[in-house]
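Case study.
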Amino acid sequence: MPTIFDVANEAGFSPKTVSRVLNNEPTVKEETRAAVLAAIARLNYVPSQSARQMRTGQSNIIALISDEIATTPYALDMIRGAQAAAWKYGKLLTVINTEYDRHIEQRAFQLAREYRFDAVIYAAYYHREVHLIESLPDIPLVLLDCYEKSGQLSSVVPNEVQGGFDATNLLVQRGHRRIGFITYNEPIPATLGRFNGYVKALEFNGIAFDPSLVGEEDGQATGGYRGALALLQRDDRPTALFCWNDRIAMGAYDAIRKLGLSIPEDVAVMGFDNQELIASQLHPALTTMQLPHYEMGMWAVEHLFEQSSDVRQDAGSHPVNHKIECYVVERESI
Amino acid sequence: MPTIFDVANEAGFSPKTVSRVLNNEPTVKEETRAAVLAAIARLNYVPSQSARQMRTGQSNIIALISDEIATTPYALDMIRGAQAAAWKYGKLLTVINTEYDRHIEQRAFQLAREYRFDAVIYAAYYHREVHLIESLPDIPLVLLDCYEKSGQLSSVVPNEVQGGFDATNLLVQRGHRRIGFITYNEPIPATLGRFNGYVKALEFNGIAFDPSLVGEEDGQATGGYRGALALLQRDDRPTALFCWNDRIAMGAYDAIRKLGLSIPEDVAVMGFDNQELIASQLHPALTTMQLPHYEMGMWAVEHLFEQSSDVRQDAGSHPVNHKIECYVVERESI
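After joint prediction, the assembly is written out as follows.
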């Protein structure tokens, strides 16, 4: 690989002159500049980023450090959204998974610092509280799909309450008054928020909340099957099921079929998460809520770089803890 | 952020001495070294990687540059495998998606070169021929789940023929002689290879190949539904369906149910790809072939770094074009 010294030899100038050309210093004579650039082209010389960066201090790279979002299908749209926004700002997004290994996390932060990356996005696979290795990192940082208890770091998460509300409210709008809810049996933010939204939507529509219509199950198809079977074998069975996620909905489909009922004629089914592989391939295709993964990924980058954004201006230098709305993806199950 | 000059001031030595300590030069007096290290600790000084790398020339980073493997669920295990192997060698894996944008691809290669990354893995979302921007890149490179026509670059891909053979052969071992094959209607390596394996397995077992048992469809559930319905409405319907992928199998399930048949009693169903979200959640769970994504990801890194591996020794400096076997994931559908 040619060095700056090779270029200097080839051009017949000193390395210092080559360096001045590379730095775009205005005092270099035009014919000197032309000769150096010609030598660079002939040798196919690539200035080392190490050297360039020592001059400019900027790398134009963003690291997205996450637990496992690039190795599990669930939340890949966060990467897509962050990528799209990064490219808009001329930044390259590079993704490092830690698989929950603190040593890898530490090394990833170290990399970002040593290479003077512009910023770090710290992303979680699902909406949850995180504990960073470094509570106040010396590099611009935003939390994606997660938050830190102190609220001292900017973050973006889905609006779970609004999502649960809109899912339930849509079922009511379609004429349902008895709406079962098969939820997840772990108290994570998505569970608490969506349940809260479900209750609020019933209340908003003047429907009494009936705790016996809520089943808590594991988050898999088997849980959905069990939960749906229990709710639908009652004499006063619900006419609609709101499922905490699409896997639960997939299991509910099997229970509904087993009971000889049709979707959506006998039982409407509403999912959550819009996991494409499930939701669009089920028969009938599943109406569900889209988590704003893509939008959250974009927001994270925009928050870091869009100096003129309203969000940034409003917030001044304070951290912003932002929530983004979930939205309905309508297919054929309600 | 403190610089080497701050450390020098703090320690009371010259920047050159600080640099000698950072370079672990043996001629530095022990008390000088201790004073400099203490100053580094007090200031929380992090030597810039730019500077360190200009000394060592090694970054211990591998870039995995891919079209879309980190943004689509299909082949994420390639990242997991490459990560695991990279960590084994003390390397950090960083993933850059190009989304098929040649400018981004170019910039990713440039990044890898400028930062003196140890190596690049160029990965494709599905097994296919690729055309690199740079035919002979000046950085160690291996192709993952893809190949280049000339064969001049080392590559690793799944053994599609063996996969198609083993899938079909397993159905024969379970007593099936009339085996339908619902395949994909695009002539990509996975289509050609799996078809070839299907025909070879029939031949191996003394079963005449019957072209009317092969349906070509799109690769989605709708295609599987259509293809299965056509094959199963014949008087001499097959007793088993080998589906080119799990989405096709998912559609075949619906067709089988619609015809009032049971899986596996009336019709056995064999998938391909082991897309967890589909295969494990179907009812009954789908027996399918696992693409060796994880193993291919590992192989790519090992090929780059394991100087002592047999593969490397056999090959000398010649490129290696390696195929890895697919394997059966047995569930309940055959």
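Observations recorded in class. Chain A touches chain B through 53 residues (CB under 8 Å). Chain A has a mean pLDDT of 89. We will return to this complex in the next lecture.
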